[in-house]
Amino acid sequence: MWSTLPFDVLAKIFSFLSPDSLACARSACRQWHTCARTYPSTLPQHHQAWFLALPTRNRGQCCYVHNPVVDKWHMLSLDFLPDPIRPVASIGTLILVRPTNCTILQLALCNPFTRQFKYLPMLNITRTNPAVGVVILEPGQPGPNPDFRVYVAGGMSEAPRGGATYEATLEMYDSVDDAWHIMGFMPVEFAVRLTVWTPNESVYSDGVLYWMTSARAYSVMGFHLGSHTWRELSVPMADRLEFAALLWRNGRLTLVGGTCGEDACIWELTEGDGWGLIEKVPIELGIKFLGGKRSWGSTKCVGSEGAICLYREFGSGMVVWREIEEKVRWEWFWVEGCHFIRDKQVQNLQIKGSV
């Protein structure tokens, strides 16, 4: 019976498997392997998000994933990758990544579980260190892959008379036609800030693509996709925050940040471009996370629709605020850092996280 199931039916069954179970199913036979490759976006849609930890120096060409259901860490080999990578954003079951062995921006799609890897076409304008943003079109759409667009803003490019200059243009990659398009110009001062003071993380909400900038005081830069206009938003306690990250939660733009000697807080953007405080990291978890110190300076944050993770080094542990489906509420959890996998000691590495 299993050998005669249509691919779309088999793919629907696969969508209920956890990532580790799907990896096992993929290796069962040629038909299942082909189905998993043909319908990669039917990977788990009904399971809690797994935390992916990529060593920032890509030592040993491997990454680590945390299964929240059984609270267990796994190691995945990345020996199928042609180059070391750094995660940029999650796109369904794929991860948008950039190779780290070259300063010129090139992007690729990767799935560590199914060992898929594909380079995107080169940009129209060669750039170094631009801001990158992702917009998933119709997130609930059926089919093997979600359609998406990647926006690249600012960066440094070669000047007409030699040297380098800030690139005040915006490019967009459309997965439908697999090509980059020049979308127009942007204010030079925005290009400078997006180049120098912005990490790659972005959030799309209500037609606007947002990036966090950290020039002197934190602020948020936004690009409205419909009108092609730029805007700037203020940030609460902007000059006091030791770390700040933008996330998307419950359909709203969400900000996570912490100040020295105080709590880490979570805000949501409200009408009128104001920020409303919705939650704080519990005191006992904050103390455990900081290890008795008072500074949040080395904290990183990543999130998805159903979870927000605060982390530092691989072995230091994570604080997670996660949605509990059956209880229709969010709860705080502590996730121990990884020190051993299958009785083999793991180094305490600097990591870049993704969910």
TrEMBL record:
<dbReference type="InterPro" id="IPR036047">
    <property type="entry name" value="F-box-like_dom_sf"/>
</dbReference>
<dbReference type="InterPro" id="IPR015915">
    <property type="entry name" value="Kelch-typ_b-propeller"/>
</dbReference>
<dbReference type="InterPro" id="IPR050796">
    <property type="entry name" value="SCF_F-box_component"/>
</dbReference>
<dbReference type="InterPro" id="IPR001810">
    <property type="entry name" value="F-box_dom"/>
</dbReference>
<protein>
    <submittedName>
        <fullName>Galactose oxidase/kelch repeat superfamily protein isoform 2</fullName>
    </submittedName>
</protein>
<dbReference type="Pfam" id="PF12937">
    <property type="entry name" value="F-box-like"/>
</dbReference>
<feature type="domain" description="F-box">
    <location>
        <begin position="1"/>
        <end position="34"/>
    </location>
</feature>
